[in-house]
């Protein structure tokens, strides 16, 4: 059981943005995807999340083929994501931002939602309780009523993560989750990611920060020019000459 | 005292009729559909009701249900091309739809009575029924707001990519919002027909569209109070300041420009936001206003 990218390719006309990329994200582990700017990380993310059409290869979540599925079906297949540039719902309160994350698990009929029948009210109350529990876990209970648009950067990132977790995914794709955070904030998140992986969620971590990735991941993929140039345990990968060349420049190797 | 209140009864009726259409407009905007077609759908409902009662002699309650269905069905058909459009293009397409409905009302003389419209509609709707309809509409909007549908609408309006990434089907929810709005507009179109003896084709034209849109923009687009406040103020204003009544459209225009510039979220939404800000400010956690630092 894993999130599997099999020979994934993307071409924009003659430009190859990614070519025959094979990545496996097992459950319960943190898998890293790194690469210098322009390596094609974002292309991979966009293909997995249904924002970009795939040119070749397949993407599977466990037994479900999501290669050509629209974004909402990908979420329902059990894959959640956060965004590289924060995307919260600025007008809504922090609590409401998280409530929408439970959408995948809402079961009451459209009619009872329309008429405000007890089933709909019970469901809303139950989801609120779960959202509050999530806020408690992330230490943001006191901010529940605040408009999410006015929060600090670090808090907005955490709102995004809680929202993704609310959908109770089997896999979660974190697109540069600690960009712009200080060490204290990122250390706190590292602990959290570890907990998530230990609870059985498969994490694909796309990150610039090498130190953060090497500390957290058991397995790393390195992307450059749209191709995988190395993979394996962090220490082995980071001493790979091809990786050093890609990151630091040709002379180093 | 009683006479004074009775004097205002037509105004109350007008308020309630327009409030229903304002909510129909509010509902689509809330789901991120930039449709201006509400009055077109109201025209569909009004003519359906009028024709069924006058030409076919159907009882008014049955005709009302048919009006709701016709508004909803026309909206459903319209939602297919609209789902491929966004923002201003949806606005243009729906204004075109209103023009089509208007032309049909004028040129399909055999069915719609042409330029003469439909006359001799029995008046079956009075203030009590309108009050009932208003209460039911507000309850329905309240229920939607506090259900999974309202949450999905809010997410889609603010960021479609986020909504989709959380499993919200954008097409399904926007279609639902548009169909509900169409059915609501259909009902209120028919209520208007059953309230006023006659229908003329020009009734559901551009000025009406601007009025309905003004109520929502002026009052507020996201809170439940928005349409109530907007409709009440804009309907009362020309009556309170009598000389303004003749220049109703001019006043609407000026108020809209002022609102958009100084209260872009509308009166009710801005006041609610300020009240919330004050309430939260009183127990402000240390860092809540170090906002946006990175």
Automatic annotation (TrEMBL), chain B:
Keywords: Cell membrane, Membrane, Transmembrane, Transmembrane helix. It is found in: Cell membrane. CDD domains: TM_PBP1_LivM_like. One of its GO terms (cellular component) is plasma membrane. It is a multi-pass membrane protein. It holds the Pfam family BPD_transp_2. The chain crosses the membrane at residues 34-55, 62-82, 88-108, 129-145, 175-194, 206-237, 249-268. InterPro entries: ABC_transp_permease, LivM-like. GO terms for molecular function: branched-chain amino acid transmembrane transporter activity. PANTHER family: HIGH-AFFINITY BRANCHED-CHAIN AMINO ACID TRANSPORT PROTEIN BRAE, HIGH-AFFINITY BRANCHED-CHAIN AMINO ACID TRANSPORT SYSTEM PERMEASE. This is Branched-chain amino acid ABC transporter permease. It comes from Pararhodobacter aggregans.
């Amino acid at each position: 059981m894993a999130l599997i990218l099999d020979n994934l390719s993307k071409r924009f006309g003659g430009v190859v943005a990614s070519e025959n990329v094979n990545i496996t994200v097992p459950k319960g582990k943190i898998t890293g995807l790194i690469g210098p700017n322009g390596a094609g990380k974002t292309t991979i993310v966009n293909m997995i999340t249904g924002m970009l059409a795939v040119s070749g290869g397949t993407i599977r979540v466990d037994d479900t083929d999501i290669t050509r599925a629209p974004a909402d079906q990908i979420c329902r297949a059990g894959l959640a994501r956060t965004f590289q540039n924060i995307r919260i719902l600025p007008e809504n309160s922090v609590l409401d931002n998280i409530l929408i994350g439970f959408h995948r698990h809402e079961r009451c009929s459209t009619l009872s939602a329309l008429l405000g029948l007890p089933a709909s009210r019970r469901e809303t109350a139950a989801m609120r309780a779960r959202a509050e529990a999530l806020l408690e876990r992330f230490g943001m209970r006191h901010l529940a009523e605040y408009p999410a648009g006015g929060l600090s950067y670090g808090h907005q990132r955490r709102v995004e993560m809680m929202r993704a977790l609310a959908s109770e995914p089997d896999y979660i794709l974190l697109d540069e989750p600690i960009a712009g955070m200080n060490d204290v904030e990122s250390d706190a998140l590292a602990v959290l990611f570890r907990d998530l992986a230990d609870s059985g969620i498969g994490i694909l971590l796309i990150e610039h920060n090498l130190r953060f990735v090497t500390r957290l991941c058991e397995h790393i993929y390195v992307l450059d020019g749209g191709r995988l140039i190395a993979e394996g345990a962090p220490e082995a990968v980071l001493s790979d000459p091809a990786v050093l060349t890609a990151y630091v420049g040709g002379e180093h190797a | 005292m009683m006479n004074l209140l009775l004097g205002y009864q037509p105004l109350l009726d007008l308020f309630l009729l327009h409030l229903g259409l304002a909510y129909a407009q509010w509902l689509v905007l809330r789901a991120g559909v930039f449709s201006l077609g509400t009055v077109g759908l109201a025209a569909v409902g009004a003519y359906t009701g009028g024709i069924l009662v006058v030409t076919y002699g159907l009882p008014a309650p049955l005709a009302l249900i048919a009006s709701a269905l016709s508004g909803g069905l026309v909206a459903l058909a319209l939602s297919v091309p609209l789902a491929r459009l966004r923002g201003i293009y949806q606005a243009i397409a729906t204004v075109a739809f209103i023009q089509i409905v208007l032309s049909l009302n004028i040129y399909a003389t055999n069915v719609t009575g042409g330029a003469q419209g439909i006359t001799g509609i029995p008046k079956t709707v009075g203030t009590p029924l309108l009050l009932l309809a208003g209460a039911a509409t507000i309850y329905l909007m309240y229920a939607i707001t506090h259900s999974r549908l309202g949450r999905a609408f809010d997410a889609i309006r603010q960021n479609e990519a986020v909504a989709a990434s959380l499993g919200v089907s954008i097409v399904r929810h926007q279609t639902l919002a548009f169909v509900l709005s169409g059915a609501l507009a259909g009902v209120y179109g028919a209520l208007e027909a059953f309230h006023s003896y006659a229908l003329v084709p020009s009734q559901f034209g551009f000025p009406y569209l601007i009025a309905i849109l003004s109520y929502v923009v002026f009052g507020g687009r996201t809170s439940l109070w928005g349409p109530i406040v907007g409709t009440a103020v804009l309907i009362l204003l020309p009556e309170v300041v009598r000389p303004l009544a003749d220049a109703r459209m001019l006043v609407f225009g000026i108020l809209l420009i002022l609102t958009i510039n100084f209260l872009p979220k509308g009166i009710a939404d801005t006041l609610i936001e300020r009240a919330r800000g004050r309430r939260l400010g009183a127990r402000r956690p240390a860092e809540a206003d170090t906002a946006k630092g990175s």
